[in-house]
Design a protein that fits this description.
alpha/beta, Oxidized Rhodanese, domain 1, five-stranded parallel beta sheet, 6 helices, elongated
Length: about 150
């Protein structure tokens, strides 16, 4: 009876299988990928505990606002610029982008290169701002006061 129902509803069972696999991956995916995805609350704790903060957005996006004293290296340049990251591969690194996609890719790159405490900010700086958390901004050259005048 069950087999007959399964044969008649094959697409339904395939969809169910896909959903179950996605749920399993969401629970064990971080362990497989070598990094952990964290909420803004966990990111605040990491930041307060002096984790190294890495912004993997473009330079233009970085100028619009960044978290704390984040170092900006775009995800596409990251493999070539790993030397700019802490030499201690056990130091926690908090990685973020605009929404979490690029930073997830960057976190994977860091994990594959031996970094052991890599954390991806879920929702990126968008979630950070939505939580009412502060962002830094570079002052434009026009708005900087000339100390010699």
């Amino acid at each position: 009876m069950f087999v007959e129902f399964m044969q008649e509803q094959l697409l339904l069972f395939i969809a169910l299988l896909v959903v179950v696999l996605m749920l399993v991956y969401s629970y064990v995916g971080d362990k497989i990928s070598g990094f952990k995805t964290v909420s803004t609350d966990e990111a605040i704790r990491l930041y307060n505990d002096e984790a190294f903060v890495l912004d993997v957005r473009s330079a233009g996006e970085y100028r619009e606002g960044y978290i704390g004293n984040a170092l900006n290296i775009s995800v596409s340049e990251l493999p070539a610029k790993l030397s700019q990251l802490p030499a201690d591969k056990t130091q926690p690194i908090l990685v973020y982008c605009l929404s979490g996609g690029r930073s997830s890719r960057a976190a994977g790159i860091l994990a594959k290169n031996g970094y052991q405490s890599v954390f991806n900010l879920s929702g990126g700086i968008t979630a950070w701002k939505a939580g009412g958390l502060p962002v830094g901004r570079e002052r434009s050259k026009k708005n900087r006061k000339n100390p010699q005048s």
